Amino acid sequence: MQAGAALYTCPMHPQVRLPAAGPCPICGMALEALTPPATGAANPELASFEQRFYWTLPFTVCVFALAMFGHLPGQAWIEGALSTPVVLWGGWPLLTRWQQSLASLRPNMWTLTGTGVLAAFGYSVVATVAPHWFPAALRSHGEVAVYFESAAVIVSLTLLGQVLELRARAHTSSAIRALIGLAPKTARRVGPDGAEEEIALASVAVGDSLRVRPGEKIPVDGVVVAGESSVDEAMLTGEALPATKRAGDRLIGATINVGGSLLMRAARIGSDTVLAQIVQLVGQAQRSRAPMQRLADRVAGWFVVAVAGIALATFVAWGLVGPEPGWLYGLLNGVAVLIIACPCALGLATPMSIMTATGRAASLGVLFGDAAAIEALARVDTLIIDKTGTLTQGKPVFHSVAAAPGFTGEAVLQLAASIDQGSEHPFARALVGEAQRRRLTLTAPAAFASASGIGVRGVVGGRRITLGGTALMDHDGVRWASMAGAAEALRLQGASVMFLAADGALAGLLALSDPVKPDTRAALEGLRAGGLRVIMATGDGTTTAQSVARNLGIDEFHGQCTPADKLALVEALQGQGKVVAMAGDGINDAPALARADVGIAMGTGTDIAIASAHITLVNGDLRGIVRARLIALATVRNMRQNLAFAFAYNALGIPLAAGVLYPVTGQLLSPMLAALAMSLSSVSVIANALRLRRG
To answer: Which of 204, 556, 603, 645 pairs with 102 at a CA distance of 20 to 30 A?
Structure first.
C-alpha cells in the first residue's frame, strides 16, 4: 500500500505525476503524495514554507513599522536592506513559480502574485538607487516614496496563505491515512507442525495459515479454516454490530477479532486486499476532476490574461487621468489588481470539496469511483435495484418441505439432500445444510447427472430420483398438478420451489427462500423519502418478484429479466430523460451498471459488477446508497458555494483594487490588503470544504 508514496500529484491537475515534492508544472501549486504515509510524516513543501515564513516575518514587521512610523535618514536604504531577504529568499518559491509560468506560457496565480511583488520591489529599488530618474513632483527632500513594505508584506501574507492551505489540505488526506494505519504490522503464522511464529505482514504469502487471537486485527484477507468468533468490521463497512465468523466465512484484513481464536488461510495480500483497494479507490476519486470544475478551468485559463490586461489598463488610466502623482497611484493599484485577483480560490473550489467528501464517504463504507459519480448521484431521480444479493442476502435458506401421499417430509428432504451432496449449487448447499441440522442420515448417490440447468437426476438407495422444477417434471412424465396449488402459494411468499420424484412418482416439494436483508426496508424508506423512483429488476420469476416487491412496498418491478433486459430498461428510462442509478451485485448486472448514469455495486458481489460500477458499497448495506446520496447532495452544494464565493470575490475585489470607488470614498486598496484578502479567500474556500467532514 505504500507503493504510491513516492509519487506526487497536483490537487488541481491530477494528471501530473512526479517522483518528488515541489510545484506543479502547470499551475505552480504544491504537489502532494498520491498515497499519504500512514505515519503522517511532515510535508516537505509545508516545512519549507513554514521556515521561510517564520524566519522572514521579523524583517517584514520591521519594514512595515518603519514605513508607517519611521522618519530616519536614509530610511529607504534600511527598508530595502530589510525587505531584500524577505523577497529574494522568503519569496524565492513564489518567484520560481512566476518564472515557470512565464517560461511555459501557462499563466496562473503565481504569474499575478510574482508580477505584483516584483513591480513593487523593483520600483522601490530604482527609486532608492536612482531617485534623480523620477520627476521632481515625485521627490521629497531628494527622495522618492518607496514601497518595500508592500513587497515584503505581500510575500509574508502569501507564505502564510500557503502554510494555512497546505495544513488544511493535509486534513483531506486524513481518511486515507487512517485507512492505511488500520493494517497491522505483523501476523502470527502457523507452520505444518502447528508451531506459531510472529512475522512481518510483508512476509505473509497466499495460502499461509494464520492464527488470530482475541483482540487482534485480521492481518490480511482470507477464509476461516477453524474456530468461531465475532469480528468488528465497522472500520471498513460502517456496520456497528460485529459479524459472526465460522469455518468458510470470509475475513477482511485490518478488521478486529473480538471474540474467540480463529485459524485462517491467507487469500489476498498486499495491494490485492480489500483495504488496499479501498485506499486506491479513495485516492483515485480524490484526484479526479468534477465536471463542475471544467467551468472553473475554462474561466481560469482566460482569467489570468484578462487580469493582466485590467492591471495594465489601471496603470495607464491612473497615469493619464488620475490625480497627482497619477503614475504612482497607477502602479500601486495595478499591483493590487494583480494580487487580489489571484485565482487560487477558483482553482481550489471543487478539488477540496471532492477530496473531503470522498474521505468522509470512505469512512462510512461508500467508495466513489471518481468525482463525476458524486455530481451524477446528486442528479439521480430513478433507481433500479436488483433483487438477489442486493435487496436480499443472495444466500438461499431452507424454507419448508411438503410430502405427497405415501411420503414423509423428512424422507423427501433426506432424498433431496442425498442426491445434492456433491453439488456446489447454493440451493443444494441449503438442502444439505438443513438435513445435517436435522441429523438425517444421507446416502451417497450411486449415480448423479445434471439436467441441463433445470434440475438433477440420480440413484439413491436403489431408487431413481429426479429433483427440479416443473420443466424437468414434465420432461420425465411426473404428474405434479396435485401440489401445484401449494407450490404457487409458496411462490407468492417469495420462495423458490423444487419438486422431488422417486421412481417416476411425485414424492413432494421443497421450498427455499432468499431472506430480505435486515437493512433493506429502512434503506428503501430513506430512498423514497429522498424523492427517488425505485424500480426492482430481477431474473426471478414474475410471481416471486411480485411477492418480494409487495413485501417491500415497491410499486414497480420487472421479473424474469436477462442482462440484456436490465440494460434495455436503463436505456429506456434514460430515453425518457431520467437520470438513472442501477444497484446490483452480480455478473448479470454488469452491463446495466456500466450503462447507468451511476452504477452502484455491492462490495459483497462479484468483481465484474464492482469493476463496472461507479460507486461501491463496501459491506453491501443498501443504507449506503442513502448515505452516498446525502454526501453527494452536500458536496455539490458545497462546490457551488465555493465557486460562487470565488467568482463573487473576484468580481468585487478587482474593481476595488483598481480604485473605482476612489472618487466617492477617497480611499484606495493597498497591495498589502489585497494580499491579505487573496490569502483569506483561499482559506475560506478550504474551510468551507472541510465542513463536509462533519456532515
So the answer is: 645
CA–centroid distance for 252 within its chain: 20
pLDDT digits (tens, 9 = 90+) for 156-209: 877 876 776 667 556 555 555 666 667 788 899 999 888 889 998 889 999 999
pLDDT averaged over the chain? 79
User: Which residue among 221, 232, 370, 386 is the active-site one?
Assistant: 386
Global pTM? 0.57
The DSSP bridge partners found for residue 392 are 516
Residue identified by cell 492464527 is 211
Which residue in this structure is represented by grid cell 412496498? 553
Instruction: Tell me if residue 386 is catalytic.
Output: yes
Can you read off the three cell numbers belonging to residue 91? 519569496
Whether omega before 396 lies within 30 degrees of 0, making that bond cis, reads no
pLDDT, tens only, 582-636? 888 755 676 787 788 888 887 765 454 555 567 888 777 788 888 889 999 998 8
Residue 494 CA to residue 514 CA, distance in Å, equals: 8
Q: Strand 366-368 and strand 615-617: pairing?
A: antiparallel
* Burial (CB count within 10 angstroms: exposed 0-12, middle 13-18, buried 19+), residue 531: exposed
Instruction: Find the DSSP H helices in 341-379.
Output: 344-363, 371-379
DSSP secondary structure string for all residues of 247-279:
TT-EE-TT-EE-SS-EEEEEEE-GGGSHHHHHH
Q: Taking CA 645 as the corner, what is the angle to CA 640 and CA 647, rounded to the nearest 5 degrees?
A: 95
Q: pLDDT tens for residues 387-425?
A: 877 788 777 889 999 999 999 999 999 999 998 887 666
Q: Whose CA is closest to 86, among 160, 156, 161, 157?
A: 156
Long-range residue pairs from 242-250, CB within 8 A, at least 24 positions apart, any chain: 248/223, 248/224, 249/223, 249/224, 250/221, 250/222, 250/223
d(CA 398, CA 514) in angstroms, rounded, equals 9
